[in-house]
Design goal:
Layout (H helix, E strand, L loop, with lengths): L15 H11 L5 H17 L10 H12 L15 H5 L19 H12 L5 H21 L6 H11 L26 H22 L1
Helix pairs in contact: 1-2, 2-3, 5-6
Length: about 210
Amino acid sequence: MDYNTQRNKLALPEYGRHIQRMVEYLRTIPDREKRNEQALAVIGVMGSLFPYLRDINDFKHKLWDHIFIIADFDLDIDSPYPRPEPVTFEEKPRRVPYTSPDTIELKHYGRGVQDMLENIATLPEGEKRSYSIMAVANHMKKAYLAWNKESVSDDMIYRDITKLTKGRIVMNDSTRLSVGNYGYSSNGGSSNGQNRQKRMQQQQQQRRRITNK
């Protein structure tokens, strides 16, 4: 029996073993002109395996690069594109300079909230500062509820703001936050649940009136 584990490893498995055998056969053709002719035929077969990619830019260029990869870069043919070098494909990708996550104090709010609070903390006392603090605090409560469907207390948002600004912003405990369309009331209960209960009571009263008639 001829098992795949006993065969040569496929350089590009997406093309299959038949294409790899065709490319290996190209290396055995002594006549250069005939070898180039057969290489064009193999390129055509390779392209027919992925017809939906023909409209992509440099599709032909990729096919020629792939035929050299399959041949382990040991194929003497005339390519219309620069011959690829093995080192091109062995080079490791450059490291992406990600921002250190340690600079974000509370990751569930994101960097945007932290940066906004940093800017607000530099504002002088006044209406603009107070309005900005309330706007960000309400947004923080909405963002928290988007991840945690349970109710969240306003006091926790106040503590988070103080932590993010290192004590430069301290909110009054009497201030109540709003969560807009998120379906929660300012006291931590669900306004949607209250409305649903009210509708059920109205429906029960209507059924009683119909029954009494």
